[in-house]
Amino acid sequence: MSMTNSPGTRPPLIVVVGSINMDLVARMVHLPRPGETVSGESFQTISGGKGANQAVAASRLGARVVMIGRLGDDSFGTTLRQNLIAEGIDTDHVIETTGCSSGVALIGVESTGANAITVIPAANGRLSEDDVLSRRAIIAAANALIVQLETPIPTVAAALRIAKQHGVLSVLDPAPAAPLPEALIQVDILSPNQSEAETLTGICVRDWDSAESAARELQRRGAKDVVIKLGSSGACLCSHDGKVQRISAVSADIVDTTAAGDAFTAALTVARCEGHSLADATRFGCLAGTLACTRFGAQPAMPTRAELERWTELSKT
């Protein structure tokens, strides 16, 4: 599997409609139980938010990326915008929200790499349908649209309607987990993890067979292609032609799983936009997600194209 773009090929244009957060990250030996106080080992502020994470990942993998979202008029907002610009992302459609803080995520990471996250939407919660509808032309011109669930559901639905009307590849990463109307499930690629798939279908996803059952149910509800992320096991994909494939993940020393799913979804989308098969795009996503787990933080963990190309070659040996 070669994931190198053809010389002279223009990079795909990907629009991300979603959240932009400042992650307040504490590392500790183990996450506290209810009522327990633990001593942390370190604290950092790191640019994050599922939408912004995916935008950064897609940009580092060679795509042209436009971000549609909202920031507050606070110092976090200034820093977050500057960081996106530094990653080569078009922020002309990131709106400053007067009298509102930027989104924040409180993240605890234990020594195993497991994490617990509390998200305060703030400005992200004010991203409206009108914000998206007034930018219809931006979405219509894209090769793909990526959305998540850290902004209001009606806003996500509006973005997906535009993509569908204009034949733009629609990718939904349904996180954080939430029950969804079937209209939102009817996307080109639905990419939940195990817990999200269970929330959407009621099927407990614990192995390959249950993942396939959940994927089939999501397809019954209107999703075209379903890729269920299974962490260190890889991913189960069910394509619209009825084929089911089990894609194994490569092994690695896990440091922090915070942004693994975001790296996966971005890499999957970039590869599909470049014309690669769903199976090869899923393998690319698995590599990106695994490599992101070997680093601390969200956006800083996102791999570059060159790094994933090296991993692709190593995975053949």
Overall mean pLDDT stands at: 92
- DSSP strand (E) fraction? 15-25%
- How much helical structure, as a percent, in the residues? 25-40%
Record the strand order, biggest sheet.
5-4-1-8-9-10-11-12-13
Structural class: alpha/beta
Radius of gyration: 18 Å
Distance between the termini: 12 Å
Instruction: Note the main sheet.
Output: 9 strands, mixed
List SSEs in N-to-C order: EEEHEHEEEHHEHEHEHHEEEHHH
Shape: globular
Residue ranges: pLDDT <50 for 5 or more in a row?
Answer: none
Using DSSP, what is the number of strands? 13
> Count of DSSP helices?
11
Short structural description:
This protein is α/β, with parallel strands linked by helices and 317 residues long.
Structure description:
The protein is an alpha/beta fold and about 325 residues long. The protein contains eleven helices and 13 strands. The protein has helices spanning about 50-60, 75-85, 130-135, 135-140, 155-165, 180-185, 195-200, 210-220, 260-275, 280-295, 305-315; strands at about 15, 20-30, 40-50, 65-70, 90-95, 105-110, 115-120, 145, 170, 190, 225-230, 235-240, 245. The strands form two sheets. Strands 5-4-1-8-9-10-11-12-13 form a nine-stranded mixed sheet, with helices on both faces. A four-stranded mixed sheet has the order 3-2-6-7. Helix 1 crosses helix 9, helix 7 crosses helix 8 (about 210-220) and helix 9 packs antiparallel against helix 10. The radius of gyration is 18 Å and the shape is globular.
